[in-house]
Specification:
Blueprint (H helix, E strand, L loop, with lengths): L1 H28 L30
Protein name: SPW_0924 family protein
Organism: Micromonospora qiuiae
C-alpha cells in the first residue's frame, strides 16, 4: 500500500498548485475597489505612448 500513499500525496500537491494558480489569476484580474476621491482603479497593464518631441529641424 506504499504506492497508493505516494499517489495520494502527489495528487494533493498538484491540487494545491492548481488552487494557487487559480487564486493568483482571480487576484490579478479582479477589479480593485474604488475609493471615493481616490485614483481610478488600476488594471494589469496601462499602455501610454510618450508625447512626440517637437520638430527642431526648421529652427
Amino acid at each position: 500500500m506504499v504506492g497508493s500513499t505516494g499517489v495520494r500525496e502527489l495528487l494533493l500537491v498538484v491540487a494545491v498548485a492548481i488552487l494557487g494558480v487559480l487564486l493568483a489569476t482571480v487576484a490579478a484580474f479582479t477589479p480593485w475597489p474604488v475609493t471615493p476621491g481616490g485614483a481610478a482603479p488600476s488594471g494589469l497593464v496601462e499602455l501610454h505612448t510618450p508625447p512626440t518631441p517637437p520638430d527642431r529641424s526648421s529652427a
